[in-house]
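Reply to dn_fold:

You asked what the input looked like. This is it:
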Amino acid sequence: MNEKKIILEAMKKAGEPLNAGKIAELTGLDRKVVDKAMAEMKKDGSIVSPVRCKWEPAVK
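and this is what came back:
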């Protein structure tokens, strides 16, 4: 499974907006990997920020 899918699964399981540090903690991924994947996900619109510095999956 690629990083983006792992991150989205962690976000869905948490049921609340998360910051990159918490996602790294929950998934066991390196923080730099999480930051890079989230930057790409922000650009393609797969995640949105309902609260400053916290992210959740975009509703499609």
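The mean pLDDT is 94.
Hope that clears it up.
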